[in-house]
Amino acid sequence: MPKINTDREKIQELLTRSVSNVYPNREYLEKLLRSGQRLSLYLGIDPTGDSLHLGHAINLEKLRAFQELGHQVILLIGDFTAMVGDPTDKKATRQPLTRAQVLSNAKDYKKQAAKFLDFTGPNKALWKYNSDWHDKLQFPKIMEVASHFTVQQLLERDMFQERIKNSRPISLHEFLYPLLQAYDCIAMKVDGELGGNDQTFNMLSGRDLSKTMLHKDKFVLTMKLLEDQTGKKMGKTEGNMLALKDSAKDMYGKVMSWTDGMILPGFELCTRIPMKEIKLLVDIPNPRNAKARLAYEITKIFHGKDAAMKAGREFEKVFSKKENPEDIKVFGVKPGSINPIDLLMAMKFINSKSEAKRLVEGGGLKLNHNKVVDWQKNITIKSGDVIQAGKRKFGKIK
Questions:
Q1: 192-196 and 126-129 beta bridge pairing
Q2: Where in the chain is the domain with CATH 3.40.50.620?
Q3: Of residues 138 and 396, which shows the higher confidence score?
């Protein structure tokens, strides 16, 4: 049995940094953490995409903090619930996934999560799949679980109210999603759960179910979300996802594209720099330097110090000094006259002609650092020319 660390300063950091809310309250959880009792808690992730992203990393970092204090942490892969589809924040029903798709999506999750959690040590994190119990649930048990919820309670959710208002359907399987997630707590008999604050309804449903079926209180710790300038959370649904499978160069570049308003929350949520030091970093006159430090710190977590430094040098070379990247890819395209759309398609920089047209019209195509603005007019290319599509795609004509 690992020794439980009850250091007051570490507990305060755990309860405050990146934390949105604690249920039933912060004092309750602080008392548990100070008691020396070994707690069990979990983070659930539905594998709806083929990589974890920065939003998951924020939650994994907090789970790591519990593990370092000696508590039992569980990373639960929702291979069953992913096939149902979490309706949270969704204006329409998700496209259903098969079990094969879900498991394929999750194939690299453990390797990525190992950047945060220890799956092999004396206090190893547990790796579980919720299909282990949901596949075995029989209808009488489902009826028992359902009896602890009301239709009015589930209809309170904002996205359901919006769908009703706009005459959009609510599928019964997604309506019952909170019941399935709530039952995860019953199957594992955990003391607590953590997740993004967009999951508050689902996690509190599990807390209610724990009270009625297990007669125990379950704490819920909700985490802040990393949001863009419009208030949308960073994630694959919004199209601004920083995936943990991204290269060091792409990861660094994506962070550098964030608005200045995201620098402070980025340091708090996505790095391990002490909060006292973060305040000094953000208060400096030049926010670009602070953003560069943020990009370095995030990239370092996933790719190491050397790769992060190289990505920083490359970014400075390409975007500040307007030079070509060191590792530019070479493409075999016939020199001569060619339509810009055909060039982009030949280099596989763009997935469709309509997307290529929008890129050119938006000034996103450059030939030797000069913008190409007319997609209907042919351009002349020769061996050695450098093509840039968007901010981060470069290619040299051979």
A1: unpaired
A2: 8-223
A3: 138
